[in-house]
Each structure stands twice: as C-alpha cells, then as structure tokens.
Amino acid sequence: MTAYDDLMAFQRETEALAQIAGRLGWDQETMMPRGAADQRGEEMGAMEGVLHARRTDPRLADWLEAAEPEDDEAHAQLRLIRRSFDRATKVPADLAQALARVTSTAQGIWAEARAAEKIGDFLPTLAEVIALKQQEAAALAQGGDLYDALMDDYEPGATAASTAAMFDRMRPRLVRLRAAVLDKPAPAPLNGHFGEPAQLRFSRDLAARFGYDFTRGRLDLAVHPFSSGSGNDVRITTRVVETDPFNCFYSTIHEVGHACYELGIDPDYLLTPLGNGASMGVHESQSRIYENQLGRSPAFTGWMFRQMLDRFGDFGVSSPEEFTRIVNRVQPGFIRTEADEVHYNLHVMMRFDLERALIRGDLQVADLEAAWNDRFAADFGVAVDRPAHGVLQDVHWSCGLFGYFPTYTLGNVYAGCLHQALRAALPDLDDQLARGDVTAATGWLRENVQRHGGLMAPRDVITQACGFAPTEAPLLDYLDAKFGALYGL
Predict the structure, then answer these.
(1) Can you list the pairs that 179-187 forms with residues at least 24 positions away whose Cβ atoms lie under 8 Å?
(2) Which residues does the Swiss-Prot or TrEMBL record annotate as the active site (predicted)?
C-alpha cells in the first residue's frame, strides 16, 4: 500500500468514529433520558479524546508528506486532512476533551433553564463554555483574531471583517424593505388547532417530496430542530406547535435541505473528508433554498393550501393567495428560527456582534442578557418579554458553536445566487412547483452542489454552480421583488 492508501484507511476509521460521536449527540437531543446527562458528558469527552488522538497522530504528518495524489479528488482529500491535522495539533488534548464534556452537559442545562425561564441557571455554565472557547481560539489563532479562528471551523476562508462588511452592505436595504412592508396591512395569522399526529404525517410527506430518503434517515422531535449525520445515516428533527403548523412544516423542509445535501454527496466519498458538506454556509444554502425560495414560493404554497384543506378541512383561509401571504407574513418576532425572510438576517447580525464581543472579552456573560435585550429593542422595536424569547432561545452557545451564526446569513446569500441560476436553468419552475413537484429543482441542486461534498472550497462551489462569484445582490433583489409583489410596494 502507498502512503496515500495508508492515510485514507486510517482516515476512514476516524470518520466512522466521528459519526458514532455524532449519533451520541443526536440521541442526547431526541431520546436520551434526562438523568443520563452527566454520564453522556463523560462519554462525549471520552470519544473526543479518542478522536483528538487520531487527528493528531504523528503518522499523519509522515503520510501527508509522503502521499502522492494522482487526481483532483486525492488533492482535495489531502487538503482537508492536512487542514484538520494542523488545527487539531494546535489544541491540547485535555482542552478538546474538556470542551466536549462541558458542552455536552451544557445542552441539558440550557434546555432546563429555557423551559423554566431561569437564565441564571445557565449563565455560570455558559461562562465556562466561553472561557474554554477563548482558550481554543487562542491556540488556533496563534496571535491572530480569535473570532476568525473559530469562524474558520464552519466557513473556511471567511473572516469576521469581510463578513461584517457584507452585513453593513446588506443592513440598509433590509431595513428599508422591512419599513416599507410593515407600513402595509399584514395578513392575520392562522387561527386554529392543528393536531400533532396530522402535522407529523404532513411533515413526513413533505420530507419525502423534497427527496428525503427514509431508508437512510428518520424524523423525530427536538426542542431545537437539527439534522445529524452523513453518508447513509442522516437524521432530521422538527418541533410541533399545535396552533402554528408552519413551525413544523418549514422546520422539516429546512432540515431536509441539510439532510439531502449529505445524502446527495457522491457515495465514493463515504467516510472520507470529502463525504461532508463544503461548509456550514454552503450547507445553509441548501436548507434555506429548500425552505424559502422553493417551499415558500407562491407557486408551491398554492399547492400546500390545497393539501392543508384536504388534511385539516376548513381552517379559515379563503384562497391560495391569502394562504401565501400568511406563509410569508412579515412581522417583528422574538424567535430567529420562526423569523420571516425580511427579518431573519437581522437576527443573525445581532448574534454575530454579540458573540464576537463575548469571545473578545468586550462583553461579560453577566451583562449578556441586558446587552441582548437592548440590542433587540433597538433592531426590532420590541422589548424581549422573557428569557426563552431572548438569550435562551438558541442552543448554539451551549454547544460551543461560536463562529457558527454568521454562516446562516452566508447561506442565505449563497441561496440567493443559486436561486438566480436555478431559475435560469429551469424557466418553467413555477409550473412545476404549482404541482408540488420539486424534483427538477432538487435534482439541479444535487448535481451542481450536493454531489461534490467537500471537493471544492465553499465559495468555489457556489461560483461553479452559478457561473459567478457569490454576492449579496441576488438575495436582496429576490427579497425586494418577492415582498414587493406580496405587499404591493
């Protein structure tokens, strides 16, 4: 065997163990008994110890130096393994294990604090997570920007400065659009009861319609919906609010976008570094285009309206046009995951600024709730009424996912570019969506984005798919056109 063969055999086992660790995390969020939280923290710490040892094994350096790639695929595998090795060797093993252990138990503490509306029960643990992430960032940055070092885990090549500059360009148009829309009469929200069993049946049908393969996945309930896994075991979750079925339906479609990315990767890349999405931004582009440009389009919501009449009977909406306006209703709201397309990126921009300040030490955990509430009131014109609607709403910080939030808006930007290219490639897309048929659209995304996995750098994936480098302009143009039409601007 060659050095490259030895390296890939070793890496395959590492990837398999990482999938097992991921399954422990899935179980913790869906089925694990509450009393197992401390033990699960120890289990996650032990798994991270094993994975860190493999990711820093000295043989990797020797294999990487001796390996002779024969094609672009092999070059890409080596690029990703070298990147992982370089990052892992900078982080002490005891720090990696401590992070895994603390963030595992922190998720349970966050969930209980959120349910009890007691932010004080979570803040000491959050302070511990942040202190460990600051140590990790310092080890990775080696004198550079701490937040850049963390963000690079989720969006390689992106920086806080470039992201902040893009956000500064986006914010004025988003604020102008929001003001214009909110100046118009808003449709009334749905008013009725939609039982959990019927919601979940429709969610499963929507998932299958968007291409989710239930022979390689499953749908469960979670406090905060997510997708987990890769290869041939990719699981999704949703949540049910019996007065708001859109919460369930669009959470499901969103997570199906993530899952279909992983399921759509070339099977030859299974259990290799290429067998995962290129970045969280590219990942988010798939979930957001599934959810919004496809799932909330007037054409598709017309089909959904007829489906809901069949499944729920008369639910107080008189026409497909009214239904579409309700689905795309714009209003200030507390919850990011429930935000309309106009407000969504403003939620992300707020979190981006707050977590940069936390990592830099400019904002202390004791002051976080006040800083959040002040910023939210300034950005959205609404006072936060309770912690679960404020700083406790997202699971990310309990998981240690600092640097992750900006990828949500990067994903929206990428989705805007992909949607423009998709429309050009499928001029009859609306006719298909009106029949509830998304196969051509999801097929185009699978061929042009998903199958490549980690073969290319994130921006290169989008550039190749679209024929132009990613920019925020297509997203902003799409939002202006869509909501201008819906609200008669």
Answers:
(1) 180/487, 180/489, 181/330, 181/342, 181/483, 181/487, 181/489, 182/330, 182/331, 182/332, 184/487, 184/488, 184/489, 186/329, 186/330, 186/331, 187/322, 187/325, 187/326, 187/329
(2) 255
